[in-house]
Amino acid sequence: MHLRLFSVLLLNLITVVTAAQQTTGIRFMQGNWQELVALAEKEQRPIFVDVYTDWCGPCKLMDATVFKEKVVGDKYNKAFVCYKLNAEKGEGRELARQFNVKAYPTFLFLNSSGFLLHKVVGEKASAPFLAIADEALGKVADKDQLGNLEATFKNGNRQLSFLRKFIAAKAALDMDNSDAFTELVKAWPADSLRTDEALLFIGRYLKGLQTPALQILMRNYNSLNQDIRAQIKPRLYNQLVDRGLDFAVSAKRLPEYEQLREYVRQLEPLNDAQHAHLNMLTIAYATITKNDSLLKPAVYKRVGTTMEIPVADIKKEDKRRYDEIMAPFLRGEKDSTKTPGFEEEREYIVNIYSRDLAGRLYEAASSFAQVLPAADPARKEALQWAERARLLMPGINGIQALIEQLKK
Hints:
Shape: globular
Number of strands: 5
Structural class: alpha/beta
CATH superfamily of the largest domain: Glutaredoxin
Distance between the termini: 72 Å
């Protein structure tokens, strides 16, 4: 009897201690997205969402430091319903795409109905983290906040001036505005759609690809004067490639990929980094479609002179990069004990250049192994690439398996 009573008292003590611990720092609600919005609407409070991934070092740093501070908890717990969203698990995948989250951590601030008010990317110290809460709260009362504009749009407002405001507001928060642009195309007088003013507006504010506005812009792109093209080209490239091609090839939406690739060709000339990224997408596309005539030149371009770099030079560059990354810690400017995952990251950066080159060679060899027939002489080169990758990064099972596959 005494033992049972002791157990009950101990359980109550643990519960009290846990509750006390939860009063320090941000308290994140448990549950799904629907339950989150329902609670926010019931309490008429805006929402704060920490979008993270399991592998994100800065996310872990925020968890271990800023999120645990009392002053931060006092502010956020009072002002918001707080929630954590893993961008790579469950409903987090689609929600991260919906809010166009591409880097971590990303902090989303929503109104009580779940519409976006404010979005901030990257870890923050406590002072700026408190400041962005004030920025978000300041937008709650703004009649032109995106949440109010979203509701007005859903209620059927299709006035030209409203649509332009709505489109610009979504673009400012890097949100897909394809639906609004589609309605704008309908609302715009037909003779105005191809004017420089209309095309410049599309080029400046387009954040999405599923709209006839994109087709109108690309059909008339070459007729724009050089100054306008220079203004919209960087944004347009990012939309076509980052929002379009990357997703289309990963989702194997091949007709969409082919159309977007034609649009990107209209943007030439492009810089070396852009060409390198497009070449990687070409490899992925050619691998999926088993197009060896498209694949081979892209792969050879990707490999470049990698095989000619002496191993000693690669190891020297590994050391240079490692020393550069570690320098702030050695000088005392950064504290390794306060950097989550430091030891794991340290193991990675010891040979970061070798990893980069080995990855490049492995991907090239793997694409040849998947596409080229066994009798193709180019598979022998692929085998050499895989063996070089193993030399640079020994002990990786995937590389050894690829070597065995290419030897068959």
